[in-house]
Amino acid sequence: MEPDDQSLLGNTRISPWGGDSTDEPNYTPGNIAGDHDPRHGNPYFNVNLFSQEPLGQQGNSQRRFFHGPGINNTDLALLKDVKIREAMSAEFRAEFFNAFNHAQFYGEYTVDGNFDDGPGSFGVVGGDNGGRVGQLAVKFNF
């Protein structure tokens, strides 16, 4: 969705990538905590505290006031070398990425903080970066 220009400043393209604006919504102080389990599909924070700014005015919400869940990633590798003869060996490897299978919300999968995206998108986690991945390998050296 294109950014709004409620402030009537005409600054909806302030970055080379477009889509940015200095317009911010109004923020009503209150409990910002929302549903922190993105599997429910509910907003990550209380979106009812935000409203459209009046025409011709800037909203009172700070830019970048909120960030979504952090990254909790652990990669693990196990390796075993087995000597068969003097010049022969076998190497067994097991590698796991995101070994403890924690949800990864970053990049395009973070919380949607764009008020202009409207209900159903604003404040909702867009997805995750996938679960645990494992791979096994055997290598014969001679």
Provide structural commentary.
The protein has 142 residues and is an all-beta fold. It has one domain (26-141). It contains no helices and five strands. It has strands at 26-27, 50-51, 76-85, 88-97, 133-141. The chain has a three-stranded antiparallel β-sheet, with no helix packed on it. Strands 1-2 form a two-stranded antiparallel ribbon.
Percent in strands: 15-25%
Number of H- or I-type helical stretches: 0
Question: Which overall shape is indicated by the principal axes computed on the Cα atoms?
Answer: elongated
Tell me about the largest β-sheet. 3 strands, antiparallel
Q: Give the uncertain stretches in residue-range form.
A: none
Topology:
Layout: E1 26-27, E2 50-51, E3 76-85, E4 88-97, E5 133-141
Antiparallel strand pairs: 1-2, 3-4, 4-5
What is this structure, in a nutshell?
The protein is mainly beta.
Summary tags:
5 strands; elongated; 142 residues; two-stranded antiparallel ribbon; three-stranded antiparallel β-sheet; mainly beta
